[in-house]
Design brief:
Layout: E1 2-4, H1 13-38, H2 45-64, E2 70-72
Antiparallel strand pairs: 1-2
């Protein structure tokens, strides 16, 4: 089975969904890291939100500038 990734300077729906997952996961990691660093469960949601958005945008930027490739999987 072969799959072609999105072409250079374009995104598909799978890229958008993965970007949202990366943003959500980085938000959780930022919350955990902040609570461990401070030693208490008080969150600065502005910095956490910025971390999530920055991670999502960085992932989409990486996908946008990566050329298309063929992924073959052996079943």
């Amino acid at each position: 089975m072969q799959k072609i990734t999105s072409s250079f300077l374009s995104l598909n729906t799978q890229d958008i969904l993965k970007g949202a997952i990366v943003a959500a996961a980085s938000t959780v990691f930022a919350m955990v890291a902040e609570s461990v660093e401070k030693g208490q469960f008080i969150f600065d949601f502005t910095s956490i939100w910025h971390t999530g958005v920055a991670a999502g945008v960085a992932y989409l930027g990486k996908q946008l500038f990566t050329p298309a490739s063929i992924i073959s999987a052996k079943l």
